Amino acid sequence: MRTLLALSLLACSTHLYAQTAVSPSTSASAVAATTTAMSAKEKVVADVERQRFAAQVSKDYTALDKLLADDLHYTHSSGATDTKTSYIQSIRDGKSKYDAIDVQELTVRLYGNTAIINGVCLIKATNNGETINTRLRYTDAYVRKGNQWQLVTWQSVKLAN
Length: 161
Description:
By secondary structure, this protein is an alpha+beta fold. The protein has helices at residues 2-17, 28-36, 40-58, 61-67, 84-92; strands spanning 68-75, 81-82, 96-111, 114-127, 130-145, 148-159. It is built from five helices and six strands; from the N terminus they run ααααββαββββ. Helix 3 (40-58) runs antiparallel to helix 4. The chain is globular.
């Protein structure tokens, strides 16, 4: 029993070290510094997350098709939901136009072929003709399929700017 307790404490302390978060008021260089505290595998997933955000801004549909799982369940901060197809189509149609996505916090936890990300980002966009400048706290999950990490779910809530 003591051995089990000791192993559990060791696992928790190791896990907490990998989750060093950056405060919302810090700069992009501080986010990069936090990334260096991640393991190599966690950095890969963090990079995939940033690639996805960049693809949303640049309307890189090939990248989005690769980075979003076919069974994606995307829940916006408004409560509206999208599938992979409807989400990409909303960007194509101009209903969702991302001008910038600034990552302010990002932590990655790995569980085999599944990664959970908790983060805060500032989104500058136009949604259904309305300009938005919103800070979001989000949780998303990626699953590794072969050598590719794909987003399978996203859920966010609005924070005070």
